[in-house]
Each structure stands twice: as structure tokens, then as C-alpha cells.
Amino acid sequence: MTNAQLTLIQIDNYGPWTVTPNPRREMDLQTMQSRLFADLAQFIGGRGGYVFFTRFDNMVAITNGLDRTDHDLLQETIGNRYPVTISLGTGTDPSPIVALESATAGLQEAGSAQDGDRREVRFGEYLAEEQRTPEDVQIAHFDVNDATGKYTDQLNEFDSFIQIEQGYATLMRYLREEHGGLSFFVGGDNIISICPGMTEADYRESISHVEATAGVELKVGVGIDKTPHGAGMEAKHALETCRHDGTVVELGTHQDDVEVATD
Amino acid sequence: MTNAQLTLIQIDNYGPWTVTPNPRREMDLQTMQSRLFADLAQFIGGRGGYVFFTRFDNMVAITNGLDRTDHDLLQETIGNRYPVTISLGTGTDPSPIVALESATAGLQEAGSAQDGDRREVRFGEYLAEEQRTPEDVQIAHFDVNDATGKYTDQLNEFDSFIQIEQGYATLMRYLREEHGGLSFFVGGDNIISICPGMTEADYRESISHVEATAGVELKVGVGIDKTPHGAGMEAKHALETCRHDGTVVELGTHQDDVEVATD
Amino acid sequence: MTNAQLTLIQIDNYGPWTVTPNPRREMDLQTMQSRLFADLAQFIGGRGGYVFFTRFDNMVAITNGLDRTDHDLLQETIGNRYPVTISLGTGTDPSPIVALESATAGLQEAGSAQDGDRREVRFGEYLAEEQRTPEDVQIAHFDVNDATGKYTDQLNEFDSFIQIEQGYATLMRYLREEHGGLSFFVGGDNIISICPGMTEADYRESISHVEATAGVELKVGVGIDKTPHGAGMEAKHALETCRHDGTVVELGTHQDDVEVATD
Amino acid sequence: MTNAQLTLIQIDNYGPWTVTPNPRREMDLQTMQSRLFADLAQFIGGRGGYVFFTRFDNMVAITNGLDRTDHDLLQETIGNRYPVTISLGTGTDPSPIVALESATAGLQEAGSAQDGDRREVRFGEYLAEEQRTPEDVQIAHFDVNDATGKYTDQLNEFDSFIQIEQGYATLMRYLREEHGGLSFFVGGDNIISICPGMTEADYRESISHVEATAGVELKVGVGIDKTPHGAGMEAKHALETCRHDGTVVELGTHQDDVEVATD
């Protein structure tokens, strides 16, 4: 059984800030947002977690292995170096969506995202070291079969993007609704999902659904580990196996032994 | 009539690089990608253009005002500072999608995006200064009505994101298919579109389509100018007028006088 | 005759900010400072200028080719993306130190660097396009003879650093006092100087002085151009000639024809 | 007694890279160097260490609290995101200079800093957790008395810089020669030193020496802790006490109790 620790990172009062006193240059906003995300990726990634840019003003991270002290430091270091501050809500649950609901609710109870007085909120609980297990995190890494050959090298870039985007939009809804999983586009033709305990059959159905609905053919590697980075790396290696062997779903070796075998 | 200069920025051989010799840490890839995008945003934005992250390995920019020398420098400075290089294709046309098709085709003819020997390609034409007019660029800046009140402060962040995402997926297809316009999610509840000469009625229809199809209510400010930055700023101010006056479509003052009045 | 345009970039009220409300983490200050400098280097460098980190809270740039609009944009984009703002003073003169004196005086007259109300000051004059000539900028690029063999590969890093530092401290004072030139350590064993019209003999004397005083052996390549980047590149190529030919002073080809020949 | 863990960070074969195949744009080199330093500052600083830019191609860090795994990750993440790689040597000793000598020697033995085949070297020992004590790190934070009033607001920026620089050059040599301490200019009028167990009298003598030799008046706050960050923060607070009380040397409270009282 998985046990995800999800962190919601919300820029405080960001919308109003972007137009105060006048609308700011869009490319400056894009620069600031993407660098803030990059810094979060380094901070969280260097401690074994994963963060996704989501909407940039609200970013979702899976942070198994990061404790309260790490979150304190993250909030402080961003506040020291950016013109904006961040609030952090954390939740834990076997279901990723439930964990995120808990993380989000904590911030919402503290006030609106556009409340100018609500700054640097901290909310939530963290997995204690003794609660953690080697099956806490299940990461699925999807990509599109031959995206370069079928799209990038054939269509104009926007039409390639539409194909990838529609595949992503379909998968994100399916995994959310059917499994409570959280899927994020991470660039190229790649989607990474934070999943609950799902089986090989579950993944095959997901891929069939996307192909039937959006006409986009996916494959997936899956990893399970104590940390997001560990699970994600296992998923990447499993996806490499798909590429070499022409298979559609590959479960990392860890999962074969521990999770799926006993399912 | 608009006359967009579109630039496709493609990281050379990126997919293979990310797994050579072994899959690289995902958070390092995210960091590198988003910082590369931030640097492009500063470079292009500081010269009056706009760039969008699109798929990160392929990014789309509107670059009216940037000439061949600027593109030379961009390619050189990225090559000096990143572990990857970029190829650049440029095209111009009254229709944004046609301009991008031209830009993309140039790179495709030079070889595959995953051809390890195809590096730092340059292709395309640039608008000569004497060709440029004050109506070359039309930018539409959409946002979601009361996204904070309806989504961010109510739903968990992933479900908020799904709403915004479905609105975006619907709009991007509609504007592409009906008008040849290119729409990009830029964070929060914001979408920026590179549009051909569209009228107020065209925008009203687009918004109605998104509401009918995805259930997401948008409003839009539109700007026209010689440069993307100029048009984008006019669009932002027009969107502020929507917010204050409760209107759904606002055309910037420039457009009132010059473009739409004569349509 | 040279005609340098110098820009002083001063972070507003920085000292007090670093300890308000409490001392901030040193590594956050270092990160913020060095990234601010990097952004200035990209902005100014992409427009043909050079900037040096100097004291980080005060940075010196040579900005021939950047006009008032460029400086406006620089101030705006930094203000949009950093937790601090910058003031900019500009001066022009055949003598670099006189140009910088003028740039500095403008900011000093507007108030103290630690006056919390003095923010985003702009002061100064810019070289008009018609005033500019191909001999406006003289850049000298020094390095230490065989620094790797004599220091880096032999001494502990701090003792290597002391050697380089003492060479730099000696050169910076000599060129300042004798010629009104401005010298900046740029990393490794490299020093870049903004010089007035100096001759080969002047450079030989400078190098002799440093060797006699600090025991550090330098060589130098010199370039002259309309822009700092052009002059700096010529200087780098000249320094490569020193390396290959074992010479101590090399003047770029441009200088041979135009400046030195007529001296 | 202190017990410093020093890490030397050396960019592999950097000099040759900067001129291959031709000299690279200086502002790109400056950007890359300073961003690399910023990333090191975040990585090391977020784990309780301090890093100094030194010569940029060789950087010195005090890394008490970072183990082998942290150094592995640092080397990997830089290699993933930069066009250059780094080698890391580590040493530990009560004397900072001896620790650095050990760290440097390890890299030197592996080959020259300009050996193209010597890449991503790792050398050294790390303090085991059970060896670590609350007095391992002594950090001194110096600044110049009224630098803004006497220099920044009075002189042109280069002459201000010369004053600060000469003060630094004098202090760095004195502490190195007399105590084996390592001093680094960190911007503005600030110098941070990694010191062995030094007393209040030692600091008074250092300050007197700099005033007598270079005419620059310093004051200093000193902190002692298990980690560089802890000691550095204590030093910053002690320096604030100097500022408020007009004193010249202040030892942090920790030191009063533990180190100096027993000296």
C-alpha cells in the first residue's frame, strides 16, 4: 500500500501582485515563475522528492522524506530570494488525491489565495520516519510511442503539441477519476503520475482508454520505493525496458517482488 | 492584417540525451529545462518578443523585432552555457499557424529532432524592418472568471488544475482549427494566444465555445502592436478593463482605432 | 582616443535589507547576489557591454551601445524579479575613472546608498549614436603566466588564490593611479581592465610593476572597438597569440592599424 | 578546538574549455560561473555549509555536516545541468588551512586541473557523525566601520572598492599566515573567515594589523557551532551587537560559554 506525502506550494497573493501597480512584463513573470519552479525542483529533488509545475502559482510536490524542518527551510530560502513568498500545505494518505485534498484544505482554511494578509502559511503533517516503508511511493512514467517519428518530425510544432496535450488531458482525468492518481506533463512526450497501489492490469486499461479516447499511444514504466526519486528512477529504467523490448507496461523489479506479486 | 514572425526553438537530440548513459535525475531535467526557458524569456522578452514553454524540448516564440543577428546570438549564448544546444527555425505569415509550419518545416528538412549529428541548425526568414507595421501582432490574453473563488479556494489543487486545463485544451483546439491561432497556458488561470486578425465577434464565439464545451468561463483582453510585448501589454490592460467593468471581451485602444474599426 | 560609457549599478538599501528583520542566511544572500550579477551579465552582455561584480552590492559596467531605453528596461526587469531594486548612474569620458566618478556622483547626490527612501534612481548621460567611434573602448585582458603549473597544481587553493589576489591588488592600484584604468578580477587567473588610450609600452610597464611588486608574472592582450564586447573579443584573441607565441603584450589587429600606429 | 571539513570544488579543465574552439563570450562565462556558484551556495547552504566563490574555477567550501552521499549528489547534479563538470576534494583538520591542503593535494595527485582526461574526481574523508562536536566550526564575520558613510557615499565606486579590497588583501594574508585561517570577501564590505580556535585577543590583533597596514577599520562578530551555518548566524548576530554597541569584537553567546571561557 502506498502512503504519499503531498505538498501544495502556493505563491501568496500572486494574481494581484502580477498587476500591481500595473501589469508587469509577461516575460518577467514567466522568468520568475520558471526559476522559482527550478529552485523548488533542486531543493525538493535533492532531498528525494518530486515537484511539478502544475499552474506555476500553485505547484504540487510529493515529498516523502522531507520533514517539517525541510519545509521550514524551503519557505525561508524562497522568502529570502524572491519578490514573492510561498505558503505550504502538506497531507499524507494512501490515496494521492486524498493527501492533496488535505494539503489544500489546510491552506484554504487559513484564507484565500488572494488574501494579501495571508502569507507564508504552514499547514500539515509529515510522515514520521518510523511510519515510512519501502512501498510508500508508486511513480508511473509514461511516454508517447514514437512521438518524434509520428509528431515532432512530421507536424508543425503546435499540432504535435496538441496531440501530446490531448493525450495528457485524457490520462490526467482518467487516473484522477478511476484511481485518485495525479498526472503531470513534464515536457517532451512525458507524463509522470503519482499513483496509489495500481496493478499492471490497471495500467493497461489506462493506456487503452487514452488510445481509444484521444488516439494517442502510450507506454509506461512503473517504480515503487520509499522515496519519489527512488520510485521515479525505477520507473525510468522500466520505461527503457519498454523501449528496448517493445512492451507497453513494465513494472520495476522492486514492484515485481513486493507490491504486484502480492496484489 | 497581422504578420507574425514565429520561431521554433528545438533542443537538439534532447530525448536521447536525457537517458544517456543512464536516465538522468528527473528534477535535474526539470531544473535545466525551466531555466533554459527562463533564459529564452529574458532574451526574447527583452527584445520585445514572447516565448512559450510548450513542450520544453520544443518551444514556440513570436519574435517580430528580432532579426538574424539576434537569433545568432541566442544560439551562441545558450550553446556557451548549457549542456545542450538548440536549433532555430523561423517563419513569417499573416496566419500564425502557417508561419509556424514554415518554421518547423525548415528544421524537419535538416534532419530528425533525434538525429545526433543535426546540431545548431538555423533556418528561416526574418521580417525586414521596412516590412513591419503597427498591426503585425495580435495578442489575446484570456483568464478564467473568478478562478480563485470558484476553483483555487474551493477544490483541491489538482481538481482546480483539471478545470483550467480542460478550458485550455478546448480553447487551444478551437482557435487552432477555426482561426489558425496559437494558444499557450502561461500559469495560474491565464492563456495567451497569438492570433491572426480576429474581430470582437470572433472572440465572443471562442469564449462561448469553451463555456459550452468545457464549462469554463473565460474573458479576454486583446492588443495589437508592432511587437509582441506591445500587443501583450495592451491586451493585459484591456483584460484589466474586463475585470473592472465586468465585460467579457475588451479590445485595446489601438485596435479600436486601427484594426477593428476598418474591419 | 577612448570614450567610455560607465554605468554604476547599486542595489538600493542593500546592507539594511540583509539584516532585516534578522540577519538572512548567508548562502541565500550569496545566491541572490550572484544570480543578480548573472542576469546583468546576460542583459548587458547581450547588448555588447561588460559588467563586473566588483562588490556585488555595487557593480560596474561599461555600456557603450546601451542607451536610456536599455537602462530603463534593465531597471524594470530587475525590479520585477528580485526582492531588491537597483539604481543606475551613467557617465561618459575619455578617462574610465572620470566616467565612473560622474556616474557615482549622480547617485550620491540623490541620497545615501542606505537611504530607504532612495529607490530606483536614474542618473546620467548616454553616448549618442553619432558620437560613437570605433576606438571608444579599449579592453585589456590579463592572465598569469602558467598559473596552473605554478599555483593551481602546486599550492593549496587558498595560497594559489593569495598569489592571484596580490597580483590583482597590485595591478588594480597601478592602472587606477597611473592611467585612470579600471581593473576587475573575473575568475581563474584573469583580470580585465577598462583602459584609456594606452600604448604597448604602457602595458609593458604595468606588467613589470606587478612582477616587481607582487612577484606575479602577467601577460596581456589588448583590443579596441566601438563596443566592450568587440574590444574584449579582440583582446582575448590577442591573449591567445601571447600564449602561442610566448609574448607578453599583444595588441589586437584593429589597434595596430588605428590606435597605436597613430599614437 | 575546531575541526573543519573543507571541500575544494574545481571545474574540470576549465581554462582550455573557455577558449575552445575559440574564446567564448566573456559575459557568458561570467554568467555560467556565477550561476554555478549560486547553485553550490544553495546546495551546500541548504545542508548547513558555506561556500565561497574564491576564483570561480576553484571554489572553497566548509562542509561540516555534508557526507559522502551529499558530495556524490552534488557532483551528479552539476554534471547533469552544466556544460562543465566538477571535481571534489575534501579534508578535515583542526586547522582550516591544513584541511584545505589535504583537500587540494587529493585533486592534484589525480592529475592537473587542465588535464582533459581528469574528470569528476572524488577524493577525501568526511567527518563521521560521532566525531562531530558543537565547537567544530568557528566563523568570523568582519565588516568595515561605516563603509557607506566613508566610502560608498563619498568616493567613486572604484576607489571605494580599492579601499575594501586592500583591507581584504591584508586580512586574508594575516589570518592565513598567523592562524591558518581562510578569509573570503563576500560582497559589500563583508569578509567571512573560517578560523581555528582563536581568542578575542587574536581578533583584536587582526583588526589592529589591518588598520595599521591598510588604514581600513574593521569590526568582527564570531560564532562557534557544529555547522558553518550555525556558526555563521551566531557571528552575524554578534556583529549586529558590535553595530548597536559600538564594539569592535563580539563573541557569540555559545562561544562565551564553551570555547573562550575555557581558553
From TrEMBL, chains A, B, C, D:
Keywords in alphabetical order: GTP-binding, Hydrolase, Nucleotide-binding
Alphabetized PANTHER family for the sequence: GTP CYCLOHYDROLASE III
GO MF term (any one): GTP cyclohydrolase IIa activity
HAMAP family, sorted: GTP_cyclohydro_3
Originating organism: Halobellus clavatus
Signal peptide (from-to): none
Encoding gene per record: gch3
One Pfam family in the UniProt entry: GCH_III
Designated name of the protein: GTP cyclohydrolase III
UniProt lineage: Archaea, Methanobacteriati, Methanobacteriota, Stenosarchaea group, Halobacteria
Catalytic reaction(s) noted: GTP + 3 H2O = 2-amino-5-formylamino-6-(5-phospho-D-ribosylamino)pyrimidin-4(3H)-one + 2 phosphate + 2 H(+)
